[in-house]
Each structure stands twice: as C-alpha cells, then as structure tokens.
Design goal:
By secondary structure, the protein is α/β, with parallel strands linked by helices. Among the domains are: 161 residues, 3-Layer(bba) Sandwich (FAD/NAD(P)-binding domain); 88 residues, no CATH class. It is 30% helix and 23% strand. The strands form five sheets. Strands 8-7-17-18-19-16-20 form a seven-stranded mixed beta sheet. It has a five-stranded parallel beta sheet with strand order 10-2-1-14-21. The protein has a four-stranded mixed beta sheet with strand order 13-12-11-15, with no helix packed on it. Strand 7 and strand 8 form a beta hairpin. Helix 1 packs parallel to helix 12, helix 3 runs antiparallel to helix 7 and helix 5 crosses helix 6. It is globular and about 65 Å long. The relative contact order is 0.21.
Length: 403
C-alpha cells in the first residue's frame, strides 16, 4: 500500500481519516488491540463509561481540531465544562494551580509560601540550574517544591527525578512574588490558567467513543490484533508477531519505538539510542464510591497514598457514579488487593529524560529520510494531549500530500 500506519490511537486514526478526506485510499492501519482508541479507549464499568487510559478530555483551544472531530461525533453530543480541579493538601482541597491559590491556606502557611517564593532563584535572577529538582526549587521556591511538586512528580513519573531534563518545563511562567502577594491580600487567583481551562466530554459515552467512530469511518483499512515485531528501513517492510509482512511507500509509526524488537537498516548508534528512551506505566482502578465534591479531578502529593490523581467521573460523565485512581506501576505494591476493576497502561507517559531531545531529533530526522515518520505521543516520544496529537496528525497528512 502507499501508507502503512502503525497504531489506531488518536494519531493513527486522524492521519488515516485526513488521508481519506484528501482522496487517498491506499492506506492500512495495524492495531495490536481488539479495538481502536489507544490510550483514549473507554469501557463500561458499573453501568457507565470509564476511560482506561486515565483522564482524557478534549481541550477547546484548537477550533480546527474540534471541528475535525465533530465530523465524527457532532458538537451537540458533547458537554462543555469549565475546569474545576483541586489539590489535596493540609487536610483541605485547594484550587489548582497551587501558586495561584495560596490564599486558600491558613495565614501561617501563606506567610511561609510567600517568604519562599520571594527568594526563589527565578525571582532573585540567579542562573537557571540544569537538574530537575534544583530547577523546581529555582522556579517555584522551596515550599512549593517540597510540599507539592517534588512528591507529586515522584509519584507520577519516577523516584529518580534528576534523570529528567528541564526543557519541557521552561514554558511555565515564573511564580511572581508580587502576584502571589496580591492574590493573598485580595483572596482571588492571579496568573496563567492551566491547560484544559475549558474542555469537552461526551454526554452519553466515554472519551473513547469519538475514536471508535473514526475507526468505523475507515474500517475497511484497519487490521486488529496485529502486534508489530520488527521493521526493515531498507525495504520499508513491517513484520508482525505471527510473521505477516506489510510493505509500503511510506510508514507512519504512532507506536513506541521500543516496541520494534527487530530493527534492520538503522545505524547502530541510533538503534542503541532508542533503547535509552524511558516511559512510565500507570494503573487505573475504579472505586464505586460517590465523593461529595464538585471537582473533576484531584491531585494528591501525599507520598503515603499510592495514587497521584483521582478522576471524579460523576462530575464530567453524566448519570455515573464513583471515581478512578491513577497509580504509577512502581507504587502498585504499596496498595491492598481488591476486586475493583483495574487496567494497567504499560505505555502511559514518555519520560522527558535529559538526553531525549537529542535522541529523538536524530532518530526522526534519519527515519524521515527513509520515509518512516514518527507521529504523536509515542511516535515522537512527547507528552502530547489528544488535541495536540490530532493537530499534528492532520498537519503531517497535509504536508506529505503537498498541502
């Protein structure tokens, strides 16, 4: 075929459907699961949808992306929400982000945080450090670093935070002492709104429904339960675990590069660098209890709790109950066994290790020269949200077709 697409998640499905819009029919998607959707799949648990890949929502900030998805699932089938999220600290629920809502703490806590922010390195003009932990202290001050950012990131990503770089955090605004003080005096939030300040979620379904419909739109061009085992860059051939071979003019890979057990025709130094890419695995667990909160999701930096976040589904998924937790696989041993529904996502978050930008730049540049394109969260090894992934996939389909 002309295009071989590896993975039927948001990236692969968007690329395929954009090809179809452009009049291209010579393409095939290989998907290892029994259904499409990738990390955005949903299942029915306790009578309502549950997103097995964790919390996924459609941000409103990319109208072109939303209009593309509304072709498959019209806007009237979505509810529009204003983000309402919290952080569990000091025995109370603080609004997120923490730096904008210190005013919700007690007076003594506010004083401690203000003093800490005042002497943060970014506010004193000291040189920016390279290590992740040092950077958190420099950017946010010791109190936010020690009470929230460091324990939360250790729970979510890894105990060894200094393997992470800081390049992915530099877009975060500085925590201004003046704005924080004004916030405490006037008792209201100041500063930049976080992502998903407004978002869409389906009225009757889980988030996986839109991707199911996109898969249905190209159902004659998808083969399921096809696990990729190897790739040959010379012949542009992909081999599956059961020995099937597929050849294409152009290959689009949205699966993790570490999934290629056999790689032929790639320079040894690049092949070796692929083995250095790291990721974290996350387990979700459904808890059939109703929480009396208006929050849609809550962050838990407390290291004594195994999970780092909960999603309160009855606050975004109508006519549902209960919530689900998200826990790094490294911390599962800390939890008691239960009969609750659980799902382990082996590939949840790409880790932004210090050497990752150089690895991916060299890998993607070389592979594109062989007409093999990495796309999306795993093809590019970037922590993209689904709306960003859709935007990139549409753009790549147009670029390759000269639009």
């Amino acid at each position: 075929m002309k295009y071989l697409i590896l993975g039927a998640g948001p990236a692969g499905l968007t690329f395929a459907n954009r090809l179809k819009e452009l009049g291209e029919t010579s393409f095939l998607i290989l998907e290892r699961e029994e259904e499409a959707g990738g990390l955005c799949r949903s299942v029915t648990v306790d009578g309502s949808p549950l997103d097995i890949g964790g919390g996924h929502f459609l941000d409103v900030r990319r109208p072109r992306v939303n209009q593309f998805l509304f072709q498959f699932m019209p806007e009237e089938e979505w509810n529009l929400y204003v983000r309402n999220t919290h952080i569990s600290m000091y025995g109370k629920m603080l609004n997120h982000p923490i730096e904008a809502n210190i005013w919700q703490m007690g007076t003594e806590e506010q004083i401690g945080y203000l003093k800490s922010i005042a002497v943060a390195g970014c506010n004193l003009g000291t040189e920016m450090p390279e290590g992740f932990i040092d950077w958190i202290y420099w950017k946010l001050g010791a109190k936010i670093a020690e009470d929230y950012m460091i324990p939360y990131n250790q729970k979510m990503f890894s105990k060894e935070l200094d393997q992470l770089g800081t390049y992915w955090l530099e877009k975060l605004p500085n925590v201004s002492f003046e704005e924080t003080l004004r916030s405490c005096l006037e008792k209201k939030a100041y500063g930049t709104q976080p992502g998903h300040a407004q978002f869409y979620y389906p009225k009757k379904y889980g988030y996986g429904e839109v991707w199911k419909r996109m898969a249905d739109a190209v159902k004659g061009n998808i083969e399921y339960q096809k696990t990729v085992a190897g790739i040959d860059f010379g012949s542009k051939t992909v081999v599956t675990e059961n020995g099937d071979k597929y050849q294409a003019d152009t290959i689009i890979t949205t699966i993790p590069w570490t999934e290629f057990g056999e790689i032929h025709g790639m320079p040894e130094d690049i092949k070796e660098s692929v083995r250095k890419l790291k990721f974290s695995s996350i387990q979700i667990e459904y808890i059939p209890e109703r929480l009396e909160t208006e929050s849609q999701w809550i962050y838990f930096p407390n290291p004594e709790l195994a999970y780092h976040r909960i999603l309160v589904r009855h606050n975004f998924c109508p006519n549902s109950k209960g919530y689900w937790t998200e826990t790094n696989s490294e911390r599962i041993a800390c939890r008691e066994d239960s009969n609750n529904f659980k799902y382990m996502n082996q590939y949840a978050y790409p880790l932004n290790t210090m050497n990752k930008p150089e690895i991916m730049k060299k890998l993607l540049s070389w592979s594109e020269g062989k007409s093999v394109y990495g796309l999306g969260r795993w093809g590019e090894h970037q922590h993209y949200n689904s709306d960003v992934t859709v935007d990139l996939a549409m753009g790549l389909a147009e670029k390759i077709n000269g639009i």
